[in-house]
Amino acid sequence: MGVLALQGAFESHIRVLNTLEIESVEVRNSESLDSVDGLIIPGGESTAISMLLESNQLREPLQKRLSNGMPVFGTCAGMIILSEKILDGREDQTPLGAIDIMVRRNAFGRQIDSFESQLEIEGLNSPFPAIFIRAPIVQSAGESVKILATIEDQIVLCCNETTLVASFHPELSDDVRIHEMFVSMAK
Ligand code: GLN
């Protein structure tokens, strides 16, 4: 499994994959991207990750893999990068459009920057400890999007056939169930 390792919390995802005994590849260039059959895009700073995708000549090959149906999992900044449209982004920040959602950056808790919530998730039989850090809001989602969890009517976990996105950080909890969900999606 590939983990985009340009910026942000990629090491935490690698740690979870290790727990699941899944081999991980740090993706920083198109050669390493070619070698993986699924990719995780971590949280961090979506503007920085977007810029680094350009400067590492990764945007085009990644876009191609995504349109060929490579499974992808984005958390927080990763969700922003995989969305169709970004509100409050940088003007030159173009998302990859892997899932039909419009997101607003840093909008989740304007007053509180980060918080933890016990989240009811479709398909899991007990709540998941979800950690939110300057999280994006999903402002709207298209019909192809399946909603897996919400907080106060806001979508915080959703997917389509090949893309899973979370506005929180499953890689920072000691709970591997959402990664397991992605791994079985990627099979
Ligand atoms: N606010 C960040 C962004 O816009 C995302 C925060 C995160 O990934 N924890 O990219």
Any chance you could write out the topology, listing elements then pairs?
Elements: E1 2-4, H1 10-19, E2 25-27, H2 30-34, E3 39-41, H3 46-55, H4 59-67, E4 72-75, H5 77-82, E5 85-87, E6 101-104, E7 114-119, E8 128-133, E9 137-141, E10 146-151, E11 154-159, E12 163-166, H6 177-186
Parallel strand pairs: 1-2, 1-3, 3-4, 4-12, 5-6
Antiparallel strand pairs: 6-9, 7-8, 10-11, 11-12
The structure holds glutamine.
Give descriptors for this structure.
3-stranded mixed beta sheet, Rossmann fold, alpha/beta, binds glutamine, globular, 12 strands, 187 residues
User: How big is the Rg?
Assistant: 15 Å
Bound molecules: glutamine
Whole-number average pLDDT? Answer: 95
Tally of alpha and pi helices: 6
Strands across the major sheet, in which order? 2-1-3-4-12-11-10
Report the sheet-strand fraction: 25-35%
What are the secondary-structure elements, in order, as H or E? EHEHEHHEHEEEEEEEEH
The helix content is 25-40%
Question: What's the CATH H-level superfamily name?
Answer: Class I glutamine amidotransferase (GATase) domain
Q: In the CATH scheme, what's the topology name?
A: Rossmann fold
Number of strands: 12
Terminal Cα span: 11 Å
What structural category arises from helix and sheet content? Answer: alpha/beta
Query: What number of domains?
Result: 1
The CATH architecture is 3-Layer(aba) Sandwich
Biggest beta-sheet profile: 7 strands, mixed
Describe the global form. globular
Assigned CATH class? Alpha Beta
Which consecutive residue ranges, at least 5 long each, have pLDDT under 50?
Answer: none
